[in-house]
Amino acid sequence: MLAALIILPLIGAATCWLIPFDRLRPKVLSLFSLAHFGITLRLLIVTPPESPGGWFHLDALGKIVLLSTSTLFLVCALYSIGYLFYRQERSNRALCMWLLVCLSAASLVTITHHLGLMWVALETTTISMAPLIYFNRNARSIEATWKYLLICSVGVALALIGLYFLAYATIVARVEPSLLLDDLIRDAGKLSSGWVHAAFVFLLVGFGTKMGLAPLHTWKPDAYGEAPGLVGALLSGGLVNLAFLALLRVYQLCLATKEIVFFQNALIVMGLFSMVMAAVFMARQADFKRMLAYSSVEHVGIMAVALGLGGKAIFGALFHILANGLTKGVLFLSSGNIHRSYNSKRTDQVRGVLRRLPWSGGIFLAGFIAITGSPPFAPFISEFTIISSAFMQGQMLVGAIFLLSLTVIFIGMALTVLPMVMGEVPADSEKTAYRDTFWTVGPPLALLLLMFLLGVWIPEPLMTLLRDAAALLEVPQ
Amino acid sequence: MHSALQGYFDPALVALVAALVIGCAGIPGLFLRKPGPGQILSTAATILAAMAGVPASLQLLFSHTTTTYLLQWSLPFGPCELVIDPLSAFFLLPVFIVAAAGSLFAVGYWPAAEHRATERGLTFFYGLLASSMAILLMARNGVFFLMVWEVMALSAYFLIVVEHERENVRRAGIVYLIATHTGTLVLFVYFSLLAAQTGSFLLPPVGSLSALSPYAAIMALAAFVGFGAKAGIMPFHLWLPSAHANAPSHVSALMSGVILKMGLYGIFRSLTFFYEPPLLWGVVLTVCGIASALLGITFAVAQRDLKRLLACSSIENIGIITTGLGVAMMGVSSHNPTLMYLGMAGALLHILNHSFFKPLLFLGSGAIIHAAGTREMNLMGGLGKGMPRVALLFLIGSVAICGIPPLNGFVSEFLLYLGFFSQLKADSLVYLVLLAPVLALVGGLALIAFTKLYGSVFLGTPRSQAAAHPHEAGWPMLLPMAFLALLCLLIGVAPQLAMRLVSPAIAAFYPQPFVAEIPAGYDSVLGRLSLAGILLLTAVVLVTLLWRWRLGRGRVATAPTWGCGYQRGTARVQYGATSFSEFVVAVFNGMVRQKIDRPTLGGLFPRSARCSDVPTETLLDRVIVPLFMLVGAWSAFLRRLQYGLIHLYMMYIFATLFILMLWAH
Amino acid sequence: MITLADQLLVLVLLINFISLGTSRLIFSIRAVAVQGVILGILPGLIHPFSWHLVGITTVIIAVKGFVIPLLLVRAVRSAEIKREVEPFLGYVPTLLLGAVFTALSFGFAGKLPMLPEHQNYMFVPASIATLMSGFLVLTTRRKAISQVIGYLILENGIFIFGLLLAEAMPIMVEAGALLDLLVGTFVMGIVINQISREFSSLDTSRLTSLKEE
Amino acid sequence: MTNSIIHILLALTMPPLLLGVIGKTKAAFAGRVGAPFLQPYYDIIRLLRKGSVFSTTTSWVFRAGPIVALATTAVAALLIPFGAHQSPISFDGDMILYAYLFALGRFFTMAAALDTGSSFEGMGSAREATFSCLAEPTLFFALITLSRLSGSYSLSGMLINISFGVWLNTGAALLLLVCGMFIVLLAENCRIPFDDPNTHLELTMIHEVMVLDHSGPALAIIQYGAALKLFVLGAFFVHLALPYATGNSLIDWGLFVISMLELAVVIGMVESAMARLRLVRVPQLLVAAAILAAFSTLLVIR
User: Fold this and answer.
1) How big is the CA angle at A279 (ends A277 and A285), to the nearest 5 degrees?
2) More confidently predicted of A158 and C120
3) Count of domains in chain B?
4) Is the pLDDT of residue B2 over 60?
5) Coil, helix or strand at residue B594
């Protein structure tokens, strides 16, 4: 079962590579993503046994990330049917193939408990995304790709040396050298704090770079801005969560080694810094895709702060994995439609979207309302949980900075989004072939409805899943 | 009749169902292909629901019952209770009445046939807004409260921007949205702290929290800011005038008549949680309240836009209510039942009154705009001849809002005055009485504002072609206005009845038995008041009879107005809205600013020139917007960080690594 | 043996300084190639003989010593660039910084506990120093090529540390090393070619159109 | 009961006499014989016989103006105590009703003026609105002071309470109050120095210009209403300035009538002694009155 998660997408990638017809590939893509989604659901219901040696083990944390990633992939795959119909000028072979490779690697990240293997998988996702960012084949996209690749590779390399430190710590401590999470947690007490500290710092910076915590976020706006809408969705909704999962693993380790306080403080500081940075850069943002990128920076900041706060906020962080990831999907996919229709990302040219594209515009507007934490959408639940636990824990200052940056961000986004969607279409705006169709509007709409549903009603199984996951991250008294 | 109802079904359930029905009323219209039926359907449903909901809430009010339902939800914020107590029931009344009136008005004012594009959404969000307000009054779980609160705020936003092709509508919408969302974030803090105190998100029962705990002050402040931003109390009123002015009129009626009250409800409800509130709370409320009243009405006097004037006068009325509440809180903290009772009664009754005459006036303004095609009062005039019924109803509304006997506005202000004076004998809080002259000044200014409004709109001769041929509003527009006017007259002539409504709500604050016997004393006073009102009406009738009798004797001729010797007087030389208020605005210059441009006339035969006075929103234009600009410029400096140089980015990573290393070791 | 390994490590450090100090791209590419060869030899010196070891050694020497340099040299040739013109930071300051960081890394390594058998090697300081020099190159140079070189040096630093673990968890180390090589060579190589086709130069200071005004 | 009847009779019959007395006084000061004391009665009766002319631009609001104005003043007359006698209607807080009744009358008077569409009448109502709004606080400060002194919340209580004893105790406060209230009395009744009832230049008028278009019975009603207003406010003022009272009911009625006539004479003297103020000065004078009254309040409540 677990193996299927990895292998199936690879088969799909191979088929996409072999198929000669551009029209057919998106459907193949959707087919395999659908199968992957099915397997995911099956795995969520019947938990597979831990593999011998404990290399593969789908625990609650993995389940949450796997669920969000697989859902997002499915939606993006379906969207690609409609989207690529408007991008027939160039072959989509690379796109479909690398998407599936990325899916496979992503699943691997979620199910493995071997940090080394997880690192390899993460690196694979990084590489496999590079050609997708370069999909548009122009100067800007090559620049974006270059920055993305260089910065993320450096980050991942730092993560690697962090892992080496960890491994060496086990050797020094004369315990059985291993990078299996469970072994490490078992022997955590014996490891020498010097190496462990160094390891945590390098891992935080490494995975933080991949996740896009400020000031390591610098690749994000470029990559998100230049990549096609659905790639942006996958980057901000999928890969971010994978990196966050890696951080969660490190967090588990910290809990075991009792070095948690330093790690938590570091997380809070970097998280708040990310939110403030996002607030600064979102004000008067002239490019709505870049704005979304900064919003993604903001939300990884939120997740980091929540992780740092611990307690009830953990639940918020875990729920935010789903809420943020899927809402980002809504925003990026609809913004992709808007981009197609106006053939511009500049907010001074994109006006009156509700007039020209009632559906995409409405979805974009609703997504904006959702991502800024307004009920009745899912992000409200996670964000409110985090804020309230900040204040309940008496962390007034953290809560205050948190709320302040949320306010500024809301103002910034509102001043960008509302003029976009409202009003009349400027007379001189470019006429393009794009029209809202079922395949371009359906997927984001479905995600939006899902967000609304999760905002008012969390099904019991999901609730238990979240609780189990939170239990894994409890600070032991 | 209420006792008869009681036997059959549970009034609380009726109210709840009514609220839900109103919420769903707009949904069918979204799916119907033909534009008309959906609107009719939703209107019918809303009115029926209101007709069920009003008696239900009345019965809940009279029977002092508190009903609790437990909502099954799966969100991780503890149990979610829906509770209707007398306070909620009291606030439910305006929700049902105004919602029904507005939706009937919409049939004539925003007919689906003419507004195919917008009508569906408008109807839907209107219903959503009304029902969310009703549910809000029942919500007793902080998080659920917040969710309903935000649904209310957002649907109000979509109602405001329904005509978003117009620039100023968009601007009003953005300002409103930012204001309300900021307020909501402050409420996040409030409810979090509340939960931290009580240990659960359920709202605490009456008088269960100490007001002296270190967090209490922060909580009170957060509640005041968060709810005050919605109610439009003075420092937080910025969004209010433009939002109310630019929304469709029946929406403005609902917003001004009821949504503001939701903010006040939040403050009322929050104050019930604490026992022994410090005197300071009452003082703060009173000061902000009287300031809002005075400044709000001063702004209103200066306005030239019909609906802006009404919106500013909403600030004034909210201020009066807040003053009453503050006085009442002073009474609570100084253990002075009389003061508390009078303040609270005045505030609550004024809430009820304001939610009758303000919607009446806004609906009237809708009819006027329909007829004259503009909101600029300087272009109107003489509409009274074309639309006499609207003119009459509007006159009633204007007299009521000025707080003049024998209408309802006077009763609530009367109670407040009694409250101010009641401390004269006692030696504590005697300075409270100095509020009376200020309130009197406010009354005088209100008189100016509404004479100006009524005079420049309905009286005299038309000042523009647009206003030259007004048409009387249809019955769907007249009926709701007439109903509201009737309510105003009823409360004005029989204030004792109104007190029956108010007393149970007061009991929510101050559950001591005294609430039973204090009103008895004031009932007689109010009885005399109604007597005086009736006497006044009789006097009017008598004098009229005398006049008619003498008129019958002499001969009656008609002629043009005497021009005092000026033969070439045109409609343009009438005293317009701006010229009417120019004198008093000059007197109060500084409190209200105007962008005045006066032409300089040179030479023996100066060329034609224009002169204009435009009231400006001082705080918004001179303080807030520049502040944003400043922050933007400052952040522009930080934006250099993202300067596209990958080497810098590398350096950030390096630096982060380095700092963390130093921190770790 | 030990002394030899240490001397080689010293050589590695020297090469760091060379690549920090030189302005001619070809030269620094060659230097990095030599560094790669040395890293290939090192495992043979500290670990007992095994065919597995031979395999690793050959692969590493082949890739780090020959494949990558060839790729890079081709890129340089195709883009007709000889030398790194005005770097962001002059050569002398860069060298000084390199010296400082090397010293720092020795200090840092001193604070960390080691296995007795690794006690008298200078693996840790060398690896960290190399890492730092890699960072320095990345932050101070303009040309895309030199940034790839910087990345490679950084990788070498990591690899040196990996040697300590080579016997404990060989698979891990090899996987890491190979994956890095994959990134370092192929992907970046491809991208570099794309860049030189798109901009007809490898000057990354031209890649600054994406920024906040 | 008898007191109430006398009260109503006085209110019905006496007001125009005050106007007559004022006129006579002014005439005497000008060295003229002047019109007879009863002239105002003759005018009103004559007007009641005349026919009416209505402007074509007016609506029912115009006709309602004088009627409501008179009605409100009449009800106010029932609230105020004449002399040492309880007023027919008196309850806690009636002073507020008293104050707001005039507001109602003013609303309709101004509306009627605006209804004619004449620029002059609009101008007049604008001025009236501003001045009366500024006069409002003074009245309330007075009410506060009186209520504080008497401890009563009804006009009868607080006015009848004033006596020479009170003057001896709190003379300063009452003196300030008398000055303030006298200014308000003149302003509210449009006497010199605020307005000239019998000027003939519309540009300078305030109250008179608002009623330019009324004629016949309506004008009669207006004139009687104005007189009644003067009478009612005067009664209020007389309580402060000339608080004579003996125990005997009839004598007190006599004293009241006399003191009202004294008041009329004083007004006449002021009018003949002073000139009209420039319009821009009027608000300043009113604010000054408010300040005087405020001081008196502070004196008694501190």
Assistant:
1) 105
2) A158
3) 1
4) no
5) strand
State the Rg of chain D over Cα: 19
Are the C-beta atoms of C162 and C177 separated by less than 8 Å?
Answer: yes
Phi, psi for B264 (deg, rounded to 5):
-65, -40
Q: DSSP letters along A440-459, please?
A: HHHHHHHHHHHHHHHHH---
ipTM, two decimals, is 0.91
User: Average pLDDT over chain B, rounded to whole?
Assistant: 89
Q: Per-residue pLDDT tens for D223-270?
A: 999 999 999 999 999 999 988 888 888 899 999 999 999 999 999 999
With vertex at residue C138, the alpha carbon angle to CA C196 and CA B636, rounded to the nearest 5 degrees, is: 90
Q: A374, A401, A402: best mutation site toward chain B, by most B Cβ within 10 Å?
A: A374
Q: What length does chain B have?
A: 665
Which residues constitute the domain of residue B407?
Answer: 332-544
Provide CB contacts within 8 A for A240, sequence distance 6+.
Answer: A211, A212, A296, A299, A300, A324, A325
Closest listed residue to residue A341, CA positions, set A432, A423, A255: A432
**From the candidates D61, D67, D96, D202, which should be mutated to test the interface with B, based on the most B CB atoms within 10 A?**
D96
pLDDT digits over B500-513, tens only? Answer: 888 888 887 765 65
pLDDT given for residue B4 in this prediction: 43
| Average pLDDT in chain A | 91
In angstroms, the CA B465 to CA B482 distance is 29
Measured CA distances, B483 to B41, B59, B310, B361, D61 (Å)? 21, 21, 20, 12, 22
The answer to whether the Cβ–Cβ distance between B643 and C211 falls below 8 Å is: yes
Q: Dihedral through CA B381, CA B382, CA B384, CA B390, nearest 10?
A: -30
Distance from CA of C32 to the nearest CA of B (A): 20
What is chain A's percent helix, strand, coil content, to nearest 5?
Answer: 80, 0, 20
Q: Which of A419-423, B607-611, D135-139, D211-215 has the lowest mean pLDDT?
A: B607-611
- Geometric angle at alpha carbon B454, from B609 and B96, rounded to 5°: 130
Compute the average pLDDT of residues B67-73.
88
Q: What is the pTM of this model?
A: 0.93
Q: In chain B, pLDDT over 70 holds for what percent of residues?
A: 97
Compute the nearest-CA separation of B332 from chain C (Å).
56
Give the residue from B158, D100, A198 showing the smallest Cα distance to C161: A198
- Number of separate domains in chain D: 1
Higher pLDDT pick, B36 / A326: A326
The partner residue sitting opposite B644, judged by closest CB among C141, C142, C209, is: C209
Exposed/middle/buried for residue B337 (C-beta within 10 Å: 0-12, 13-18, 19+): middle
Residue B199 has φ and ψ, to the nearest 5°, of 90, -5
Query: pLDDT at residue A459 above 80?
Result: yes
Tokens 């027919």: give the residue.
Answer: D88
Paired tokens of B353: 């009154």
How distant is the Cα of A75 from the closest Cα of chain B, in angstroms? 26
Task: Give how far Cα C106 sits from Cα of A465, B544, B560, C103, C132, Å.
Answer: 47, 107, 106, 5, 12
pLDDT at B6 exceeding the cut of 50 = no
Query: Tokens 């005299």 belong to which residue?
Result: B460
The two structure tokens encoding residue B259: 């949504």
| Whether A294 contacts chain C with CB within 8 A | no
Please give the backbone phi and psi of residue B563, each rounded to the nearest 5 degrees, phi first.
Answer: -85, 15
The beta-carbon neighbor of C111 closest among A145, A146, A194 is A194
CA distances from A214 to A153, A297, A302, C84 (A): 17, 7, 12, 31
Q: Do A375 and B185 touch (CB under 8 A)?
A: no
**Record: contact B189-A403, CB cut-off 8 A:** yes
Q: At B615, which helix (H) or strand (E)?
A: strand B612-615
Instruction: Tell me the range of B72-76, B128-132, D150-154 where mean pLDDT is highest.
Output: B128-132
pLDDT for B127 equals 95
